[in-house]
Amino acid sequence: MNAISFDTAARKAWMGLLARTSPARLNELLPDLPDHTVLRGPEVGAVMVRGRVGGTGAPFNLGEMTVTRCSVRLADGAVGHAHVQGRDKAHARRAAVLDALLQTPAAADYEAQILMPLRQEETAARALRAAKAAATKVEFFTLVRGEDK
Amino acid sequence: MTPEALLGGFTDAPRQSARAFRAALEAMARPGTLWAVEGAAPPAPLSVAAGVLILTLCDGTTPLHLGPSYDLPVVRDWVTFHTGAPLVAAKDAQFACGTWADLMPVDRFAIGLPDYPDRAATLIVDMPALTIQGPRLTGPGIASATHLSLPDTAAFRANRALFPQGFDTYLTCGSQVAGLPRSTIVEAV
Asked: What is the pLDDT averaged over residues B42-62?
């Protein structure tokens, strides 16, 4: 396997991006998967989502979430993993293959053709949602009443 | 994590694990018979049959103990990646895997409680050879008598004396597996 330098934060970011993308959009961008062997899965399971609340920040169980996970290995030895929300096995598999491809020397191509458009779409969708919410913003103020004197 | 630790799991888990589970049931129900299992390619020194049993029987809720000669990083990683079983000391284990010398003394393992004899350990013993010759076996699941190349006789006789408590044993070699439940009466010939 040809080691390509990438840091954990970058990998975390693209794995998250691939997991959040809609399966249909990912299918459009990468219709054909290269040769790969499946190491584990794709399999559906549940994970407990935990949150923190209160003054002490003690953890509590928010609820269970359905996830699908998959691990694959490409012909050149690169290993990719994916955990996606829901029970779409094809999505998990495609995301795992892309995770592996992004660790190969061809990573720059996939970065430009797949990650960049996805990132832009996500930023645009977030900006649109923030703009819609901003339009409903209300300013509160308090009138000074005369009896305070 | 090395690539060897990621390879060698079931390629068609629903079918392969169902077949392996049936073989494990039959082996335990008919002591002294050999059953062939397949589907796993675990890292050395685990045998194929021991690997198949671990994939089939262990998960995140079944603590596994690895004998000293099996307690290697690649084996630990393989078990963790494919089953998620916690790796623990002998006294806390529900399953244990290793050679007979690794697992001695066997009185370290859980034998269950009088009220809950099912809370006992199951040993997976990797053997250099496994044949239907050796000590004589009688008891439930055996029509008259069978023979199996056991690594020891005294330990299994002592285990039978604890019945209904006691550990159960799978003997593995290559892709073959044989069962020796706690109920079997072992006599040296």
From this structure: 93
What DSSP designation does B49 have? H
* Tokens at B54, concatenated: 């671990």
Spatial CA neighbour of B8 closest among B45, B69, B51, B56: B51
Reading across the β-sheet that carries B146-147, which strands appear in turn?
A: B146-147, B136-138, B185-187
Q: Interface pTM (ipTM) of the complex?
A: 0.70
In the DSSP assignment, the letter for residue B111 is: B
Residue (of A68, A74, A55) closest to A18 by Cα position: A68
Residue with tokens 């991006």: A17
Residue B7 to residue A73, Cβ atoms within 8 A: yes
Report CA torsion sign: B5, B11, B14, B15: negative
Tell me the average confidence (pLDDT) per consecutive run of 10 residues in chain A, 149 residues long.
Answer: 64 91 89 87 90 84 93 89 93 93 88 90 94 90 73
B95 three-state secondary structure: strand
Tokens coding B155:
């330990």
pTM: 0.82
Give the integer Cα–Cα distance in Å for A68 and B6. Answer: 18
The region, left, alpha or beta by phi > 0 then psi within -120 to 50, assigned to residue B141 is: left
For residue B55, the distance in angstroms to the closest alpha carbon of chain A comes to 12
Tell me which long-range contacts B150-155 makes (C-beta under 8 A, separation of at least 24): B150/B180, B150/B186, B151/B100, B151/B125, B151/B127, B152/B100, B153/B186, B153/B187, B153/B188, B155/B104, B155/B106
Beta-ladder partners of A61: A50
- For the beta carbon of residue A118, count every other beta carbon within 10 angstroms: 18
Nearest CA distance, B10 vs chain A (angstrom): 8
Beta carbons of A115 and A107 less than 8 angstroms apart: no
User: What DSSP state is assigned to residue A114?
Assistant: I
Q: Is A103's Cβ below 8 Å from some Cβ in B? A: no
Closest by CA position to B82, among listed A100, A66, A71: A71
